[in-house]
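thoughts on both lines:
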Amino acid sequence: MANHLSLLLLLLFFSSSSSSSSSSYANLIIEGDGDLRLSETASLIPLADAERLIRALNLLPKDATPESRYAGELAGGKKRIVERSFSLADGVPVEDLGHHAGYYRLPHAKDARMFYFFFESRHSKKDPVVIWLTGGPGCSSELAVFYENGPFNIADNLSLVWNNFGWDQASNLIYVDQPTGTGFSYSSDKSDLRHDETGVSGDLYDFLQAFFAEHPEYAENDLYITGESYAGHYVPAFASRVHKGNKAKEGIHINLKGFAIGNGLTDPAIQYEAYTDYALAMGIIEDADHSTINKMIPPCEAAIKRCGTSGTDSCLNAYSVCNSIFNSIMDIAGNINHYDIRKQCEGPLCYDFSNLEELLNQKRVRDALGVGDVEFVSCSPGVYRAMLTDWMRNLEVGIPELLQDGIRVLVYAGEYDLICNWLGNSRWVHAMEWSGSKDFASSPETPFMVDGAEAGVMKSHGPLTFLKVHDAGHMVPMDQPKAALEMLRRWTQGKLEKASAKKKTFM
């Protein structure tokens, strides 16, 4: 079961997207005005299934018992956060690494514990603190730790190889398994599942408060919030919560400088409309397909609008109606890897991350991390379904205020990703209304140079930058690790800027 879920929609979504589009219509009815909507019975199915799926996968385990060093110190509210140093590198002393794993007891939950990794910078504790959030919703950040921008990569024999382009080369790096039920995070109470960004961002803000209380030596460092895929929702919501807390002088002041979204889902109305244009431009569909599938866009837009003003059922309806666009494209595309259209899927899940489950289920690794009997699952369908009502919400709406207050925003996207393609991301960034929007739109497009070669093309004005990364799919740090590290380094140093006046064309 764990292997089957090793890439449950990888770092984003569409648990039903890979199936035929006919299944998407199974529970749809057509109203008199031509709009599509879910039948009332069908709209309740995803959430009704959530508890059964979670129990089946042991994500709310009956006996969730991390080793006593965690469980005992967290019990009864004695401590909110407990961590330990560890080493997974053979022959390297624990004290030489600055690698930590921990559990945080969520204060606004009944019995939830959030698992995290913390990797000190390989160069200086004065480097910025960067927190990474993997999407899903419900996919573990361990996917990024071991396959993207963490200190290690997993070799075929399950040994760990140093990643020369890990983001700990330029930052003190935190990965969090969130929301509750993701990865090693767990609860014994199903009410601790989160259903929206208010719950998610609140938990993350509480975590940062506890983290900086435990590590006051990092509290004054610059902080950057980063993430990928469904983190296009998490990241701006989290940044807004931190900014709000700072303004209200809640707890420890957090030195938030910026946030970055990689191949994210942020403004669904604009991004779903871009699917057909991207697919046509990349030769995935033809003109006739483009015209046919585009007829689904107006019902999608109407459904998203209702989601923004109504409640649960309307948001579930929007999820189903709009994903018929993506499903129809995939019916034509066949076995294409929708995370990297240059490739075919390797099996039903497009990538093979089974080494991750095998590694994290080794006794020596579990002992080192202190996770006890909490079962690791790469991606949780229960968390995914619990967040379905959040899916079609527009998270762009909170970003202009952050830009106005000088919080720097980087939106980047690999050019060969279909599911969160660069075109849709570029369009919502350009459509965003803020004081610098006209100047951003008219600013020149310039090459992003790495080692004398063009690694991407970007556009910047003031605190806002958009970067399209060449030769990369959905997971930019995995496909272009050197360029991704250089992007992070320059951005956090305020040096991600125009390299020449040479014009490029996005649209």
Q: What stands out?
A: The CA atoms of residues 356 and 497 lie 36 Å apart. The longest strand covers residues 453-461. Residues 1-65, 499-507 have pLDDT under 50 and may be disordered. The two ends are 43 Å apart (CA to CA).
